[in-house]
Design a protein that fits this description.
With 209 residues, this protein is α/β, with parallel strands linked by helices. Helices cover 34% and strands 23% of the residues. It is built from 6 helices and 9 strands, in the order βαβαβαβαβαββαββ. The strands form 2 sheets. The protein has a 7-stranded mixed beta sheet. A two-stranded antiparallel sheet has the order 8-9. α1 runs parallel beside α6 and α5 crosses α6. It is globular, with a radius of gyration of 16 Å. Bound molecules: 5-O-phosphono-beta-D-ribofuranosylamine. 5-O-phosphono-beta-D-ribofuranosylamine (GRF) binds next to α1, β5 and α6.
Length: 209
């Protein structure tokens, strides 16, 4: 898949549940021209999430959308609301930035190959929650972060980019996570830029051309 360039900037729809440091890195990159795109809307499933505050302080439309009755995914009605809201903002790419719910196939079918995520490990190692803690407990010498397309599995879609972070002997899970986040803030905007603008094609899990 490639993105067809238009006479307007690519529009990103960012979903997040937490403090929003990756959103800030992406919005900064857009402002500074390192990422040729604009954040069209930020949506959160947590009304008091920091990501909404960050968006509002930058004048970017930000809204809470109720997730429905489940804890780890959106229910059907909520998923529909999310899709409608993102379509209303004419987004080209959905950027998951700490969104703590699994995205199911009706949502993915509405935006085929247009949902990306960042995960705090070198996938396919340590999918799932608290990946930095999993890596620290396992005792790996290197971990990092991965930007990938979202498919129907958990942290399993084709990989767009990775950064390596060394585990230091005196690290705690928290100090390791802090350095992984620094790497995330560099990786995420540049991986999105490459996905939108390189004109390179994806066949299955592989980048060709
Ligand atoms: C990041 O560590 C990301 O890898 C994970 O959720 C965290 C979000 O952090 N998916 P923030 O809200 O962007 O600060």
């Amino acid at each position: 898949m490639t993105f067809v360039s238009t006479d307007r900037a690519f529009r990103l729809g960012v979903l997040g549940s937490g403090k929003g440091s990756n959103f800030v890195a992406i919005a900064d990159a857009c402002q500074q021209g390192r990422l040729a795109a604009e954040v069209a809307v930020v949506i959160s499933d947590v009304p008091e999430a920091g990501i909404l505050e960050h968006a509002r302080s930058r004048g970017i439309p930000a809204q809470y959308l109720a997730p429905g009755k489940f804890r780890t995914k959106l229910d059907e009605a909520a998923e529909h609301e999310y899709v409608i809201a993102l379509q209303r903002h004419h987004v080209d790419l959905i950027v998951l930035a700490g969104f703590m719910r699994i995205i199911k196939s009706p949502f993915l079918q509405a935006f085929p190959q247009r949902v990306v995520n960042i995960h705090p490990s070198l996938l396919p190692a340590f999918p799932g929650l608290f990946a930095w803690k999993q890596a620290w407990e396992y005792g790996v010498r290197y971990t990092g972060c991965t930007v990938h397309l979202v498919d129907a599995g958990v942290d399993s879609g084709p990989i767009l980019g990775q950064r390596v972070v060394e585990v230091r002997p005196n690290d705690t899970p928290e100090s390791l996570h802090a350095r992984i986040q620094v790497a995330e803030h560099e990786l995420y905007p540049s991986a999105i830029q490459e996905y939108l603008h390189s004109g390179r094609k994806w066949e299955g899990r592989r980048l060709v051309g």
